[in-house]
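Q: I'm a student working through a structural biology exercise. My instructor gave each of us a protein and asked us to get a predicted structure, then write a short paragraph describing it. Mine is Aldehyde dehydrogenase family protein. I'm not confident about reading structure output yet, so if you can add a plain explanation after the tokens, that would really help. Here is the sequence I was given:
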Amino acid sequence: MANVNPSDLADTIGHYAVGGKAHVDRAVQAARAALPAWSTGGIQARADALDRIGSEILARKEELGALLAREEGKTRPEAVGEVARAGNIFKFFAGEALRTAGELLPSVRPGIGVEITREPIGVVGLISPWNFPIAIPAWKIAPALAYGNCVVFKPADLVPGSAWALAEIISRAGLPAGVFNLVMGAGREVGQALVDHPGIDAVSFTGSVGVGRQVAAACVARGAKVQLEMGGKNPQVVLDDADLAVAVELCAQSAFYSTGQRCTASSRLIVTEGIYGRFVDALAERTRRIKVGHALAAGVDMGPVVSAAQLEQDQRYIEIGQREGARLVAGGARVNCETEGYYLAPTLFADSTPSMKINREEIFGPVASVVRVKDYDEALAVVNDTEFGLSAGIATTSLKYATHFKRHAQAGMVMVNLPTAGVDYHVPFGGRKGSSYGSREQGRYAAEFYTTVKTAYTLA
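A: Happy to help. First, here is the predicted structure for Aldehyde dehydrogenase family protein. I'll explain a few features afterward.
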């Protein structure tokens, strides 16, 4: 399979293997063979391996960041930052491997002790998306290994280079054979085989809502544990009392950086009427100043869309927004650069309504729309009027409204005067409603998915 640079369609990064159902079966068998020793072995070996992986990733962050930017399209600084995050995730879970805690309780029956411990869930299948091709695999792989599980990892088709580089680093970290396995290939074959395989005890999936629901149904049908991170239609509220400069910058960052290809990006900008006109004018001007270009070029703010299919989807939603009556105030067209690529100008609509498709459906590109509301109460109602609930933000100088919003916004993550995109690697990540299913990813909360709880009694 050819891996083509979305910034330069004449640049083929490399050709990568495409696996099938038989490869998944071989990988699962290898993982199951390695599981007994790895799951009951010493925790120091787990910690040392994860620390070595993290150290090498951090040492090579510039090189790996350039590869990531070249195949995914986010700018070099963003890509290097993502690689650094992946390295820090492995190092964090190196420590967590040594900190798995339990409980020692007295029984209500005299002379009996109770131990509550956590054990590995078994062999886990990990399916990751293309938009964060090293960070999301890291926050799945690292906790899986830290808690003593064996892994079969299936990356997204569009970003095989980062997956291969990460797997190559992991292969030299001192893990026993079979503990970590990489199978690349199409989701409809490799991903489906992974989800359906009776040797897979749990599946962690990040991707689209439609596929996620299919994964959940297949796992529940055979009793496998499942964790899903899916879509978002994240709201960003701007109140009349907000600092205009702060609000404009955080909205530009949330909506357009990483080419808007983040599940935590803000595409619904909900603005109260007192600041609405000034905000739209200022954000439109800020949007037009975003420099679009080759992901590896210096001074570029936004790279290309990841693929021809994604570009087509973005353009289709821009047409829908115009047909629905939203006012196009910035962008809306392709951008010509020195190299042929999937370049699209960051696009901003104003005077949109909550019922429009561009405000209901996830676009997953550099397209955002502004909704005018009367006051905070209406803003909160519009925020929660969605099937999604991943991230939500508010720009305000009011402690009253900020406090109320943190409690009443129906989202797994809430930001006050900060972009909706951007979560530290040591805290839980996840949402509500149609955005997530199952326990949280990242941080200490990852133990909820990658372990199972055992209660043991002992007669003194």
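A: Here are two points you could use in your paragraph. The longest helix spans residues 76-96. The chain has a mean pLDDT of 97. It's a good idea to check both against the output above yourself.
Q: Great, thank you!
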